[in-house]
Amino acid sequence: MVNNAAYMKGGTIDELDYETWRRALAVNLDAHFLSAKHFVPRMRRNHWGRFVGISSNSIGTPVQGLSHYMASKMGVIGFMRGLANDVASDGITANAILPAITNTRASRHLPEEFKRSVWQQQAIKRFAEPEDIAGPVVFLTSEDAAFVTGQALVVDGGQYKIS
């Protein structure tokens, strides 16, 4: 089960209203809980399953106006780690991927100067393509990742900095 739900409407804390806050949490975090509630019983019966929650590398970047988005995407990591503990004995793994902004329909509207500013913060100087994220998803859903659970894998061309 790969959950790539995302809602991102920018706004600083001064501009952010409660409705936007709740929608971000509902789409970006509640969807993972609801998916788990639906899929865990069948996975338990099969003694096998994989959950991959798509989070965001934005949680480690100095971007303004995304506190609600960052909170919800950080919640995905926490939920996957907690879910991993709950279902590991049933042969089920749960992990998160933290991608960079990826070249999709949702990001095509972004100004070129913004895209270049993102690339300048990365070791790999280009926009992430869907295939760049798909490979790690395939790995985490494979038998090769049977002993990988509760992890957060950053896939962002070297933008996320650990300090």
Return the CATH class: Alpha Beta
What is the count of helical runs? 4
Order of helices and strands: EHEHEHHE
- Largest sheet data: 4 strands, parallel
Gyration radius, in Å: 16 Å
- Coarse structural class: alpha/beta
Distance between the termini: 32 Å
**Content of β-strand:** 5-15%
What is the CATH architecture descriptor?
3-Layer(aba) Sandwich
Number of strands: 4
Per CATH, the superfamily is: NAD(P)-binding Rossmann-like Domain
Looking at the chains present, what oligomeric state does this protein adopt?
A: single chain
Low-pLDDT stretches are: none
Give the strand order, joined by hyphens, for the main sheet: 1-2-3-4
Characterization of the model:
The chain has 163 residues and is an alpha/beta fold. It has a single domain (2-155), classed as NAD(P)-binding Rossmann-like Domain (Rossmann fold). Helix content is 43%, strand content 12%. A 4-stranded parallel β-sheet has the order 1-2-3-4, sandwiched between helices. β2 (49-54), α2 (67-87) and β3 (92-99) form a beta-alpha-beta unit. The longest helix has 29 residues, at 18-46.
